[in-house]
Write a structure and sequence with these properties.
The chain is built from 26 helices and no strands. The model has no long low-confidence stretch (mean pLDDT 85). Helix 21 packs antiparallel against helix 22. The protein is globular. 73% of the residues lie in helices and 0% in strands. By secondary structure, the protein is mainly alpha-helical. Belongs to the sodium:solute symporter (SSF) (TC 2.A.21) family.
Length: 595
Amino acid sequence: MILNNIDWVILIGFLIISLGIGFWTSRKNKNASEFFAAGGKMPWWLLGVSMVATTFSTDTPNLVTDIVRQNGVSGNWAWWAFLLTGMLTVFVYAGLWKKSGVLTDVEFYELRYSGKAARFLRGFRAIYLGFLFNVMIMASVSLAAIKIGGVLLGLSPVQTVVIAGIITVIYSSLGGLRGVLFTDFLQFFLSLGGAIVAAYVALNHPKVGGLENLLIHEDVVDKLSFFPSFSNPEMWVMLLIIPLLVQWWSTWYPGAEPGGGGYIAQRMFAAKNADHSIKAVLFFNVAHYAIRPWPWIIVALCSIIVFPDLDSFARAFPAVNSGVATHDMGYPAMLTFIPAGLLGLVVTSLVAAYMSTISTHLNWGSSYLVNDVYKRFINPEASDSKQVLLGRLLTVILMIFSMLMALVLENALQTFEILLQIGAGTGLIYILRWFWWRVNAISEIVAMVVSFFLALYFAFADQPFGFEELLSWQKLIIGVSITTVSWVTASFLTQKTTDEQLANFLNKVNPGGPGWRKIIARLSSKGLIKPKTQKWKVPTGIVCMIAGSMGVYGFLFSTGLYIYGEVFKASGLLLFSILCGFVIFRLYPRIIAED
């Protein structure tokens, strides 16, 4: 093992504090609302920091390293593009979710849709996301833990997942969402501090020789650009055009769901009010996309010099299983050069990142299985204490399955692409279901089924659709096209949502817009709703979305240009970001105005 006594003291001290927070907050978890939504009384800053901590998982630096080593800095558009859907959630959907009053986002189905199809969709989606999809995400995070455990601690994959799983389950099952939030607050600063330390040490590695030498190294120079080279149209399409024009609105990915959803929605439900909900998601998107990436990118660039190919990993770490010695191993490999004391801080930051992500997914997944499966279909009269007990039991079960899945995965980018393909084509339905009355439960079922089986087809077909080989972006385009046509067709051919259900939804949420105009007129004539006279907020929200996205991208690239030493350009972009923030400040009162 590389860790010495001082490193272990730092790590064990953090674990004790986390367990203490779990025990302290466990006393308030007397019902499902407290356990899964912290009673709906949390402030925006705590929720926003928690979102950032959750998405700062152990596999995220590995994913960024994998991307940078193979495709350069510009390869990060694969996830930078999701800022667009994040900002759309901030200024259009965050307030709507809070007004819906549901405990989980899958409970929304029976608020928006009617009939047996809505009930089936709620139950199926709860199992699909809460168990199957959730296990895949946690397995990806655990895979990163396996690589870190193998490189830094000399642990086998089985030893890593067992140790990490036991610690996380104990902590997660105690405090519920409130415990997750308070511990995430500590974990955020640990994780960010650890990433900065890792970047500093990587830059000072003898083979790197500091920032100036890094930026002029022959193996790094062609990977520094923020955008793909115009001389390579294939890379330009794959790395920039597809993410910005198609991927962000068309695919479902945890933490970047079009229209909001998942654990992001869970945090919004836990907010004091719509204002706190909006501010929490805004803080998350700024911190996630503009503040955190550069320390990871710097480590990834340094790893190219120190470990120029995959064979260098095998030579440096012969005890590590060759199956996991892929490009995403560059990040944990660079951590081995951190000196004692600082290494303890960095390892603790990675443990914190792991715990924050896994604990959120365990609580989120169990909330689906308890609220939307057990209480809805099995035992509607279940007591609060029984729901909390079952939620804790399910955290153990989810953790076990995710550990087993982690043992068969190989790299973070592989998992990222699989998840994108599974959700290809479903994103638009989550955006439109709030504003187009014709979307129904069958629409969503068709979208899920078609996208899932297309993903399986692409994974196992030797010559999909007669082509010898399809690139990942080509599969995405085909998947989005077929899935979208399928669910739109189903929307017109299947039974409409009942007027009573639509009236209930409109009276509670009031999303507004031309997609409801015809229905509002009909329901008003029946006396089922009272038309609202307030101006539709979505156009203002879209302006704020554009300003917010441009401002965050400006801040992200301004930071990069400062690092690259281009001070004049960096200052200009920073000023541009400030102006974008001013636009949002002036328009924000319209966004939170009461209906």
